[in-house]
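Handout, section 3.2

Students often ask what a structure token actually looks like in practice. Rather than define it abstractly, here is a full record for Lrp/AsnC family transcriptional regulator. The first block is the sequence as you would receive it.
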Amino acid sequence: MDSGTLDDLDQRLLHALQLDGRAPLSRVARRLETSERTVARRYRRLRMLGLRIVGQPVPARFGLVRWLLRLTCTPDAAGAVADSLARRPDTSWVTLASGGTELYCALSTRTAGERNALLLRKLARTPQVLSVSAHCMMRIFVGATGTWHATRFRTALPGADSGALLAPLPLDATDRTLFTELARDGRATLPELGKATGRSPSSVQRRLERLRAEGALDLSVDFDPQLLGYHMTTQLWLNVTPAHLRTVGETLATHPDIAFAAATTGRSNLVASGVFRTPDDLYRYIDQRIGALPGIQSMETAPTLREVKRLAPALP
């Protein structure tokens, strides 16, 4: 189904779900000034087209460190390596780019041992992996995964990184079960979550309110951008002078074209993921938006060829 079949109401529904992925459809209908029956019908149709609402833990609230891995593989092995990384529970997204020989992977680790087991042993011993660079995400300005979450309508997400140092949030068995169920369906009903956890719906509601209030739970909208006419997903690797790093990162976070932006370690100290309709739109963005920002010394672009894994939260 092409993008022409999605009208303004569909896009406004995606926007409303981005504001609150668990909002009752009756409330969404009032916001959109239409009937609940119409909203329910549109929501079911979007679900059939691949719409997901995914509950994600905020890694920093659980003492996890986020890493971005950049790997170069032999042409015959990149797909297999990407699939292997996608099967790991500690990865949240994996994409193939640059002619199918380069891939990117987001990884969450709690200890240096967990990190080194992958970087220094497993990948280092894989002969088809020609090079590996690991970039610690020091500050995430926008986005949790690097994939597009209705960013044309983005607002501040609950649990967004403010830079504050917070003690890791303790979890019990009920919290862990909630995260597991919400990863499958962020709009799972209170009775469904109660059955999974062995708790009453009111107890589950209080848990959800606590997790969201403490910035531990994000609800993300996952929808194929190509169905909205966006066919050019691109990784942007920028080298920014230190004095302008924060300004550039925070500015990128306000651009609707940018789904993800983070300050990282490594040769490129700012990485972003952008979604555009056409290559010409990407060119205009680089020329008019990136070119106008202060302190950018160099930039590298890498179009995404295939998303192997996306919006799969690494559970704490």
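Discussion prompt for tutorial groups: Strands lie at 52-57, 65-73, 91-97, 102-109, 129-142, 217-222, 232-240, 258-264, 270-276, 296-309. How would you have guessed this from the sequence alone?
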